[in-house]
Write a structure and sequence with these properties.
It is a single chain. The chain is α/β, with parallel strands linked by helices and 156 residues long. The protein is 45% helix and 19% strand. The protein is built from 7 helices and 5 strands; from the N terminus they run H-E-E-H-H-E-H-E-H-E-H-H. Strand 1 and strand 2 form a beta hairpin. Helix 1 packs parallel to helix 6. The chain starts with a helix and ends in an 8-residue tail after the last helix. 36% of the residues are buried.
Length: 156
Amino acid sequence: MTNDNYFMNEAICEAQKSLKDGGLPIGAVLVKNNKIISRGHNRLIQDNSVVLHAEIDVLENAGCLTYEDYIRCTLYTTLSPCSMCSGAVILYNIPRVVIGDNVTLMGAENLLKSNDVEVVVLDNPKCRELFLNFIKDNPNVWEKELKRVGNTTEVR
């Protein structure tokens, strides 16, 4: 669990980087053999993108890896991954996802589990606080993002 907390703190640094750049505070790191091989953060707002969630950004930043690489990886993400990001995890056969917070917003964890991906939820208060503070300070931005995907989920 200690390594999980260390790598989650690195994902939090990515979330803070996104926030500093005017984006949603969601970050991710990709770890292979106990070493960070890629970092990423949500860039929807900064890049006016429809797909650059933190998990997609970290995969893109990793470059073209082999099957053998992916099956040795763990993806750390500060917020429960959506169905698009969960689909990418499944597509690339990443066997383990560690999530900082799934209380604020629940993603497609059941999709991951039903495809034999190990899902670990740390319930990290830093992840939750960072995201809730963003929503409190930027309610219109968050509402716009939810409407873009037709999501009516309320933050808990």
